[in-house]
Amino acid sequence: MAWTAHKVPLPELVEASNDLDEKARELANLIRTSKHFIVFTGAGISTSAGIPDFRGPEGAWTLQAQGRQRTAAAVSTLQAIPTATHMALVELQNQGLLKYLVSQNCDGLHRRSGILPDKISELHGNNTREICKDCGKEYIRDFRAVADDTKSIHDHRTGRKCTICSGPLHDTIINFTEPLPARELELALEHAQNKADLCLVLGSSLTVTPANEIPEAVGNSRRRGGGAKLVICNLQATPLDGMAELRVHAKTDELMVRVMRELGMEIPGFVLRRRLAVTTVEVGGQGRGQRCKVVVSGVDVDGTPVSFLRSVKMVNNRRVVKAEPFAFDLRGDVAEEGLELQLELEFMGHYGEPNLELVHGVQDNELGVAVVYLLEYNPYNGEWKTTRTKQ
Ligand SMILES: [Zn+2]
Predict the structure, then answer these.
(1) Which residues of the sequence carry a binding annotation for Zn(2+) (predicted)?
(2) What is the DSSP-derived secondary structure letter of residue 193?
(3) Out of 124, 170, 191, 360, which one is annotated catalytic?
(4) Which pick of 108, 124, 211, 370 has the fewest CB atoms within 10 Å?
(5) Does residue 164 lie within any of the structural domains?
(6) R_g of the chain, CA atoms, integer Å
(7) Is residue 138 part of a domain?
(8) How far is the CA of 359 from the centre of ligand 1 (A)?
């Protein structure tokens, strides 16, 4: 990975409001008629969530090039509310219009906003995702899972271990000079070179290689007469502007709000979604002497473990477990008595989410099977909604 930073940041250009309306209409038409629409995002889409970009006037690299320190406090990426742009992309995905997303951002906001794991390549990693290089198992954390950089920036070990094979876990962040993750890059290129007929760049200066080769591949296809179209929305000029079918100088939220209005689609509000698996397994004994173990864990839609719980309390026997694995022993004939477990869940709480009480009925035919609950927290009204899902 290579990049450049300007001591004097490139000027930010802003469209007149009616020009922006016209371009939004044009883009909405392109999206509506596309067969394989992909989006490429950079730090510019997260600035309205309070997360600084890199090359804007107050961007991280601009400040570094000028020898300045940041004065205003930036929002932690764990507490940031996904922007209108993030949520518009989720809706476009859910409506089947957005086929694939490629992002240079490591803030994890796309995944948290609701983009599915098989619909995204996070080219520069995700600061809440770590991986076991021995067996390939991934883990998502509701805390910053990045190696301590006081060692070497190329030592990515986080100090935690894989629960499957005990191998050391590594963060997924890509530092200067490090190669991009092969699988993510391969998927991104596959969509850009062979499938996309429309690529929208949102909030990227397109100066970082090789990530910028993704939109470039779409632009090149157009140059070769391939018909794929590139649309770029970024306040500053980019090196690929000459290849673009449409060039928009605006904040990405301002464009996407207009585009969604043109498409007649609503931008959904952000809801924090967690999935909780409760598994009861028999460990021995029979009848009154039956012994079971209940394991409570966080999971992603694809089964990847997600650590978002601080503690779990079994209200029935007042036991509290304060670290993973959240496991409880049960005695007695669980199945026949139709036992109901009362669980009190305590979260990491980055969005101020309160504890949640969950009543879980243990069924005989579900022993050994993970029962998954969808837990939805609305940060705007402070309420949880719990749904038992089919699994
Ligand atoms: Zn492993």
Answers:
(1) 132, 135, 162, 165
(2) I
(3) 124
(4) 370
(5) no
(6) 23
(7) no
(8) 33
Q: Has 132 been labeled as part of a binding site?
A: yes
Same domain, 227 and 305: no
3-state DSSP helix/strand/coil % of the chain, to nearest 5: 25, 30, 45
CA of 353 to the centre of ligand 1 (A): 31
Q: Are strands 246-248 and 309-314 parallel, antiparallel or unpaired?
A: unpaired
- CA 169 to ligand 1 center in whole angstroms: 8
8 with 42, same domain: the answer is yes
- Asked about 124 being catalytic, the answer comes back as yes
* Ligand 1 centroid – CA 101 distance (Å): 27
135 marked as binding residue: yes
Question: What is the rounded CA–CA span in Å between residue 370 and residue 280?
Answer: 8
User: How confident is the model over 298-337, as pLDDT tens digits?
Assistant: 999 999 999 999 999 999 889 999 999 999 998 766 656 6
Instruction: Evaluate whether residue 156 is within a structural domain.
Output: no
Q: Write the CATH number for 293.
A: 2.60.40.1970
Co-location of 71 and 103 in the same domain: yes
**Full residue range of the structural domain in which residue 114 is found:** 2-127+173-263
Domain boundary among 232, 263, 294: 263
What residues of the chain score a pLDDT lower than 70?
1-5, 58, 60, 63, 68-75, 223-224, 332-337, 390-391
pLDDT in tens, 26-45: 999 999 999 999 999 999 99
106 in a labelled binding site:
no
Reduced to 3 states, what is the DSSP secondary structure of residue 134? Answer: coil
Q: CB of 109 within 8 A of CB of 82?
A: yes
Report how many domains make up the chain.
Answer: 2
